[in-house]
Q: What sequence folds into this?
């Protein structure tokens, strides 16, 4: 899977080619994925915690108390996340199995809740809809573009042309496909939205990166198209 281009040069080294997301490379401690057993910086991973009833919950912000385990969110590891692969958790926690499907539903629900909160904070500064986005593309500051997977062909061509012009001008852009116009509209508090542009310069870069990561994680879980490099 192609990687999305780093926003504002925040990633110093490349991720593995099949990684499910583009994230901020930092000096974060390493954690081992519960599925593939490979180690990654913890900020690139989804933390999971087990409650007193033996239920597994996603800890999107990595702030929940107690011990947790980590998932790298790569597509292969999401595909392999079944109750058999959750069985080793019983060595550390009192876990009720089976709960694979409940865990997937919780991951989707928690990611969507966090995304909705982030989109709400971005409404005043984001460019929402075709006209606003096309105008924002003339700005050479780094941008994150979120485009609905069911956007019309004409809009897709317009956005692609605009991104090509930005690339020739040396501007940084990240394009990530999201589930649908209806989904993007719900995130933005509108009925139907095909495309959104979010500033990713300076202090806004970290928020844009994290929002992009969550969108790609959600797409990985639900089987939607991943981000693509521009």
A:
């Amino acid at each position: 899977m192609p990687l999305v281009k780093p926003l504002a040069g925040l990633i110093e080294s490349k991720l593995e080619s099949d990684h499910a997301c583009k994230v901020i490379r930092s000096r974060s401690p390493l954690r081992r994925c519960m599925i593939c057993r490979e180690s990654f910086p913890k900020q690139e991973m989804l933390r999971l915690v087990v409650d007193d009833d033996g239920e597994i919950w996603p800890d999107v912000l990595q702030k929940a108390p107690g011990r947790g385990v980590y998932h790298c969110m790569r597509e292969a590891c999401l595909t392999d996340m079944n109750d058999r692969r959750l069985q080793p958790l019983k060595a550390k926690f009192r876990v009720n199995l089976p709960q694979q499907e409940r865990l997937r539903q919780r991951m989707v629900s928690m990611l969507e809740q966090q995304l909705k909160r982030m989109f709400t904070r971005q409404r005043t500064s984001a460019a929402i809809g075709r006209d606003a986005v096309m105008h924002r593309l003339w700005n050479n500051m780094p941008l994150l573009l979120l485009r609905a997977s069911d956007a019309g062909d004409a809009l897709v061509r317009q956005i692609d042309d605009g991104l090509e012009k930005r690339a020739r001008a040396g501007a940084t852009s990240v394009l990530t496909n999201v589930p649908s116009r209806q989904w993007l509209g719900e995130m933005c508090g509108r009925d139907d939205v095909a495309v959104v542009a979010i500033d990713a310069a300076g202090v806004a870069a970290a928020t844009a990166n994290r929002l992009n990561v969550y969108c790609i994680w959600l797409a990985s879980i639900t089987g939607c198209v991943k981000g693509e490099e521009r």
User: Anything to note?
Assistant: Residues 30-119 form a domain with the Hypothetical Cytosolic Protein; Chain: A; fold (CATH 3.30.1230.10).
